[in-house]
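Researcher: Re-running this chain for the archive, since the previous output was lost when a drive failed. Same request as before.
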Amino acid sequence: MKTKNILDNSISKSIKETKKEISYILEKLENKDTNLSESIDDYQRLVLLNKRIYTFFKARNKEVSLIGKKKKNV
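Model: Regenerated structure tokens:
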């Protein structure tokens, strides 16, 4: 699966769903019986999901900052 497809797929998920998937992947990676090649794919997915959450919070932070600035000017 291409990186763009993975990221596009994760964008449609809510933060709650994304957190659930991250938890699932982390549990899988912590399992000692996990196949190495599967672990690499899971890790790449985890990194992309992390970017998704970072982007979401960065956008929310910007919105909150703008609201704060507007209130100071009033």
